[in-house]
Amino acid sequence: MLLDVSRAMRQPGEAIPFEHHDEIPPQEIFGETITFDDVLLRGHFSGAEDNLRIWGTLTCTAHGHCAGCLKPVDLEMEIPFDENFLRLTRFTQQEETPEGEERWMYEGSKVDLARLSMTLAVLDLPIRFVCGDDCPALAALPSEDDSTSHACQKDMPDQHPFSALQQLLTKDQEV
Length: 175
Hints:
Radius of gyration: 25 Å
Distance between the termini: 71 Å
Shape: flat
Largest sheet: 6 strands, mixed
Strand content: 35-45%
Number of strands: 8
Helix content: 10-25%
């Protein structure tokens, strides 16, 4: 779905409110398929020359599975954004962007926000979904306070992981 930004071209500099419903296709992340529902971008847009600024909040619901017990998990997401788009014209199409820099572009008087929606939602996902603090599978895992964890560091509390490298450096300097 496209967002009509023609008012921003007719009224440069004025903040125009918008509400845009979008769809994000299922995403395969670390072997799990994450789906998204109720994707809504709400905010304002403003234009000046060939630049368009769009800012606001993306809200959606992400669906995945708990990393411990594999129960379905629904995650309500609210993501603020503030992005600038460059209007493609016959003059700006030849303009090169610096290597590695990605720019949001649009043509005409409509902006496709699908890629922006997907990018915002995927980048805001947690590393793993958990069903809650009371998850039986996650509760069964040893905690950091458990006496079996980090046993090697409990035997040598005054040494840090790079102490052997420090000793090599010191021996080399004495020679």
